Amino acid sequence: MSRRPAALLLRQLRRDGAVFEIHDGRLRVEAPSKVLSKDAKRAIREQREPLLRSLATERHVLDLPLDEFEHQERAIEVTVPWLNDTLWFVPRLEHIELLIRDGVGRGRIWTVLELRDLVSVPGMRREDLEQIGRLRAAFDAEIVSIQDDRQDSGPAEHRLPPRREAP
Q1: Which range in 98-102, 141-145, 148-152 is most confidently predicted, on average pLDDT?
Q2: What is the DSSP secondary-structure string of 106-149?
Q3: pTM value > 0.90
């Protein structure tokens, strides 16, 4: 591993299974032994300070409530265990065009407004979020609206019919 920016080093080692943490101001890395080769360990030592700064920035951004993230200029690329591709969380609509221009499918990009709508659905479970994420990425879809069949809002033609009980 040659000298490379900390963000690239983080991305590569994380993709290979490494987990980075800051504990009492110290950098901790846990990874399978094949991932932490001599070259990888040397690169981590050489990039220690930039890695610490990158991890601190990540923690700061991830700790922001959605309404504060919305005013940031940073897009966040994440991996999730239930999807092979990465997902992007972006603060504003303008970020979508930039990512699409870079070859990222719209179905992998979530805006703050979309996230806010999604988590506002009563009874939304983690499994539901995973399924929506997989479908959206697979179809390169954009969420237009989220309707809750328990809500009596919107035009009648857009409301779901009452749920039938199983016999």
Answers
A1: 98-102
A2: GGGEEEHHHHHHHHTSTT--HHHHHHHHHHHHHHT--------T
A3: no
